[in-house]
Structure formats: structure tokens, C-alpha cells
Amino acid sequence: MLKGNKGEWSEIYALFKLLGDTQLFAGNADLSKIETLFYPIIKIIRKESAADISYQLNNNLVIVIGGKEELEIPVATFAKQAANLLNKIKTSTGAAFSLPEVEAFMLSINCHSIAEKSTSKSDIRIVIHDQRINQAAELGFSIKSQLGGDSTLFNSNKIRWANSRILS
């Protein structure tokens, strides 16, 4: 059974939400969504232990590529799963918790881990269509959640180690 904290579960929420929305909105300096500036999502790539899993958008379907077989899942399923997961994250208590019903859906879409390893700079890679230049671009994102408390931009364990190396 998978266990994670609110920040780790938020990585899965971001995957579900983006696939359910089918577009990536730009934000302003206050982290508010700019409704008029968005990019259609072509696919999302998530690193799993065995291989990269690709979630390609095709009309109202998400095509999951990278497992034993190619899967087709309605976009609406991801929107519903995102709403359910957000509610569970907000109401969960404790440092780490499991969500068996979310894990069951994750496994059905070849998603076997909650969060990307901390050595990776990007938690998720998104291929978008930039309508201004009529080209696709692959962008990497690090997901930071405010659901459990203020997120940090740095891993404090690594900062302490780096500081101790510099001072020694």
C-alpha cells in the first residue's frame, strides 16, 4: 500500500487535474490563474521506476502508453478522480496516509508511485501546444503544494549538507 504526505499526494492530484482540465493555465505573480492565457496539453510524461509513462490527450480520451497495453480512459474520469483526491488530501490527518481507492485508480493507469524521487528536478513533464508560435514544447515542472502547509523551494537536508561541506 502506498503512503504519502499531503505534498506527495498533491503530485498525483496535479497529474489528474491537468489531464481532467486538458489545458495548462498561466499564472500571475500572486499565483492566480490567468483565464485568458492557457496552453492545450498534448501529453504528460511521468517517470516511473521501470519506464516513462505517457498520458496523451486525444479529444475526450487520455491514451496511456508505457505499460503492458495501451489504455484509453475518458478525460472526465480524471476530472472526477482529481476532485475526489483533492477532498481526501484536504481532510486527511497525520504525516503520511494511504488512500486505497486512489491507489487502485493509479495502478489502473500504470502509475505505481506517489512522488518522483527528490534527485529529479522535474516532478512532471508536460508537452503543450503553444498557439502563438504553432509549435509543441516540452516543459518540466516541480510541484509544490500548499495543502499541508507552506512548501519550501529547497530540500533542507541537502542545504545543511551543502553548508557543512562549504564550512569544513
Could you walk me through the main structural features you see in this protein, from its secondary elements to its overall organization?
This protein is of the alpha+beta class. The chain has one domain (6-167). 32% of the residues lie in helices and 30% in strands. The protein has helices at residues 6-21, 75-91, 100-108, 156-167, and strands at 23-27, 33-47, 52-58, 61-65, 71-74, 124-130, 135-141. Strands 1, 2, 3, 4, 5, 6 and 7 form a 7-stranded antiparallel β-sheet that branches. A hairpin with a 4-residue loop joins strand 2 (33-47) and strand 3 (52-58). Helix 1 (6-21) packs antiparallel against helix 2. The radius of gyration is 17 Å and the shape is globular. Residues 150-168 have low confidence and may be disordered.
Helicity, as a percent range: 25-40%
Oligomer: single chain
Spans of at least 5 consecutive residues whose pLDDT stays below 50 are 150-168
Rg, nearest Å: 17 Å
Q: Number of helical runs? A: 4
What characteristic shape results from the CA principal axes? globular
Find the count of extended strands (DSSP E, 2+ residues).
7
Total domain modules: 1
Indicate the mean pLDDT.
Answer: 83
